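Would you mind giving me a polypeptide sequence along with per-residue structure tokens?
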Amino acid sequence: MISIVSLNNKRSWQSVLFEKIIHSLPLVKDERKKNNFDKAMIDSETPYQLPKNVKKQFNIHNINGLDGPTFELLPRNEKFSKTIYYLHGGAYWWQPFFLHFRMLQNIANQNQARIIIPIYPKSPRYTADDVFPYILNNYKTAVKKFHLMSSALTLMGDSAGGGLCLSLLQLLENEKIDKPSKVILFSPWLDISNSNPDMKSIQPKDPLLNIEALAYQGDVYSGTFNTNSPLISPINADFSKFPPVYIFSGSHDILYADVKRLSHKSNKNVNYYIFPKMDHVFIAFPIPESEKALEIVTRIISEQSAV
């Protein structure tokens, strides 16, 4: 199912302003440059610490007993009846941003949901060869620790984290482990080769991502895997083996090109919510369109049983 979602067929002035602000900031980094690469290497080797402003502003706590840093974000009122396992984006190189935590706090509050957030190893020091066994073990340990029923668990992620969600589903399939009941993806990175020619027509409208720089990051992350491997580029995976998948994407995002390509395949269990003129992971922005998207997310999550 493909749904085109807009606000009275118009774009909010807040989203226009926010996009202009993003365009004015030097946010797009080329990790191929030595200085950027060297800094990224240091960052990927440095143990993750939750930023002080995140600890202060959000109801988030460290979870003991899981490999690597993993956090539990709870609703403000501490009451929850649902669980979300969330894989954050960042091109497989970057740690979660402040806007990630802001969005997740909103999702937790609106859905009475506990959100489990693993901080998986990052490139360039680590690759998919390290990330796959890590995230599989982290997921299995979390399910066991919290006695989670797969039928009552939502898998969720954005950008690279969205791609990693689909990688995790394949790893679970390979080990004959029950999968979560549903998967919700925000602007997922489906093909790390960035070889879709339709990306070029979107590039001038995308203030956040660069085709060549992002493809380089994906190539480094792929490690010993071929970039066409379904585990690395899940657009090539068999979606019929997945639980229901819900994809949110904006047409000002170069990754929308592959979302559109995926929609042309006959995957009956994949649902698409396309927001015209929205940017990459717009759902994390403080704009009316993200509020609309989060309303849809709440409807999707409410369909699952409580834990």
